[in-house]
Design brief:
- The chain has two domains: about 240 residues, Aminopeptidase (3-Layer(aba) Sandwich); about 130 residues, Alpha-Beta Plaits, CATH 3.30.70.
- It is α+β, with helices and mostly antiparallel strands and about 425 residues long.
- It contains twelve helices and 18 strands.
- The radius of gyration is 24 Å and the shape is elongated.
Length: about 425
C-alpha cells in the first residue's frame, strides 16, 4: 500500500505537478494540484483510489491477479477496472496535457485514496482538514461502468444504504427438537417470521413510512429508460434465473435505479453442517440491507426498521439489532455546465454520445463531497458492467482504457469552455 501511494505521487512528480502523501490512521492519501491558471474557468477535483479488493481464490484466476496480462486486447488484473485502471486514465490525461501543451487549461486537483474498498473511514477527516486546499466546482470520478460494452455512460445517481444484522436468541443452548419442540419459541421460526413480515405479496417493503419521501419516477425518467438498449431477457439469462421479480407496477430498470429495496444478505444459525442434527437453535442471525433513494432520510429509515423488527418479534425470544453501514442516496443535475462538458468529452473520446444511468449500488463519498466541498460529482465510467470487479479475472478492455484516457483529456478542455 505504501509503494502504491508512492507510485501515484511519483507520476505527479514526473508531470511537474505539486503533490504530497498525506498519512491517515489507515492507508495514505495522495493530494495533487496543478495550480491556478489564467482565466476564470472552473476547478475540477479528480477522485480515485489505488486500493483494491482481495484476489480471492487464486485458482479461479486464469493468470496471476497482480501480474497484468493482456489477452485478446483485454487487460486482466486485480484493480484493472476497479479502480486503478480507470483512475489512471485521468493521470495519463494530465501527463499528456503537461508534456504536450505545457499545462492544463483549467486548475485540476487530485485526491487518490487508499481505503475506498473498506469504506473510506478516513476520507471525511481528510476532506475536513484540507477543505480549502480541495475546494472545487466539480468532482469527477471514474469508478462506474458503461451501460454495456458498446454504450458509454455517465452515472448521475446512486442509492444510499442501511445495512443491519438481526440476532435472535432463545434458549441457553441448542435443544433437541423432539424433546423440546412445541414448548418454546424457536429462534429460527421467529427469525423467519420477522423477515417475512418486512415485505408483502407485491414485494413492497412494509416498514411504516418507508415510501413516504420516495420520489415518483417521472415521465422524463421513463423516457430516458425507454431509450436505453436494455434487453430484459438477456439480463435475466445473464444471471441464470427463471424470472425477474420485484415491486409490481415498476420495470426492471425502475426497480434497480429509482425504487428503494430491502434484501436479506445472509443467514446463519442452528446446525448447518454435513448430515443431520435435529435441534432448536439457541441463536440465529440474518444480515439485511436496504438500498434507499433520494429524499429518504437514512436516520429515520434506520429507526423505523428497528421499530418494525421489535414489533414483529414474537414472545419467548430476544432480538438484538446491529448496524454496519448507513449512507444517503445521491443524485446530481444532468443539465449543469460540467455535465454538458462531460457529455461532449465522452462523445469525443468514444465517438458515441453517452447515455445517462443511475446505479443501484452506493457511494458514500458522493454526499460527502457535496456536504463538505459544495461540489456535485460527475461519474464517467469506462469499464464494462461485466468486468468482474471484486471477482476473479477482473478485466479492462484496452480500447476502453485508451478511449477513457482520451475522454479524460477532452473533459478538461470542454470544461474550460463550459461557462
Amino acid at each position: 500500500m505504501q509503494r502504491g501511494a508512492q507510485w501515484v505521487q511519483d507520476l505527479f512528480v514526473s508531470c511537474g505537478v505539486e503533490s504530497r502523501i498525506v498519512e491517515t490512521k489507515g492507508h495514505a492519501c495522495v493530494l495533487a494540484d496543478t495550480g491556478p491558471v489564467s482565466g476564470d474557468g472552473p476547478t475540477v477535483l479528480v477522485y480515485g483510489h489505488y486500493d483494491v479488493q482481495p484476489t480471492g481464490d487464486p485458482a479461479l484466476w486464469d493468470s496471476p491477479a497482480f501480474e497484468p496480462t493482456v489477452r485478446d486486447c483485454i487487460l486482466f488484473a486485480r484493480g484493472s477496472a476497479d479502480d486503478k485502471g480507470q483512475a489512471l486514465t485521468h493521470l495519463l490525461a494530465l501527463e499528456a496535457w503537461r508534456h504536450v501543451a505545457g499545462g492544463t487549461p483549467i486548475r485540476v486537483k487530485y485526491i487518490i485514496e487508499g481505503e475506498e474498498e473498506i469504506g473510506s473511514p478516513n476520507l471525511e477527516k481528510i476532506l475536513r482538514d484540507h477543505r480549502d486546499e480541495l475546494a472545487c466546482d466539480y468532482v469527477v470520478i471514474s469508478d462506474t461502468p458503461k451501460f454495456d460494452a458498446n454504450t458509454p455512460a455517465i452515472t448521475y445517481g446512486t442509492k444510499g444504504m442501511i445495512y443491519k444484522e438481526i440476532i435472535v436468541t432463545g434458549p441457553k443452548q441448542n435443544l433437541h427438537s423432539g424433546s423440546f419442540g412445541g414448548t418454546i419459541t424457536n429462534p429460527g421460526n421467529a427469525l423467519a417470521s420477522i423477515l417475512a413480515s418486512l415485505r408483502d405479496a407485491d414485494n413492497r417493503v412494509t416498514i411504516p413510512g418507508y415510501y413516504d419521501d420516495v420520489r415518483d419516477v417521472t415521465a422524463e425518467d421513463r423516457g430516458r429508460l425507454a431509450a436505453l438498449p436494455f434487453d430484459e431477457t438477456e439480463f435475466r439469462d445473464s444471471m441464470d434465473v427463471a424470472s425477474l421479480e420485484g415491486e409490481r407496477q415498476y420495470s426492471t430498470l425502475e426497480r434497480r435505479w429509482f425504487r428503494p429495496t430491502l434484501d436479506v444478505n445472509g443467514l446463519h444459525g442452528g446446525f448447518t453442517g454435513e448430515g443431520a442434527s435435529t435441534v432448536i437453535p439457541a441463536t440465529v442471525m440474518a444480515k439485511v440491507s436496504m438500498r434507499i433513494v433520494p429524499d429518504q432520510d437514512p436516520d429515520r429509515i434506520s429507526k423505523s426498521f428497528d421499530e418494525a423488527i421489535h414489533a414483529a418479534t414474537p414472545p419467548g425470544v430476544r432480538v438484538e439489532i446491529m448496524e454496519h453501514a448507513r449512507c444517503g442516496a445521491y443524485v446530481s443535475p444532468i443539465d449543469s455546465p460540467g455535465m454538458n462538458a462531460a457529455v461532449a468529452a465522452v462523445e469525443a473520446g468514444f465517438g458515441k454520445r453517452p447515455v445517462f444511468t443511475r446505479e443501484g449500488g452506493s457511494l458514500p463519498i458522493l454526499p460527502l463531497f457535496r456536504d463538505l466541498l459544495g461540489a456535485e460529482s460527475i461519474m464517467i465510467g469506462f469499464c464494462t458492467p461485466d468486468c468482474n470487479a471484486h471477482g476473479p479475472n477482473e478485466f479492462f478492455a484496452l480500447s476502453d482504457f485508451h478511449n477513457g484516457t482520451k475522454t479524460a483529456a477532452h473533459f478538461l478542455d470542454k470544461l474550460a469552455h463550459a461557462g
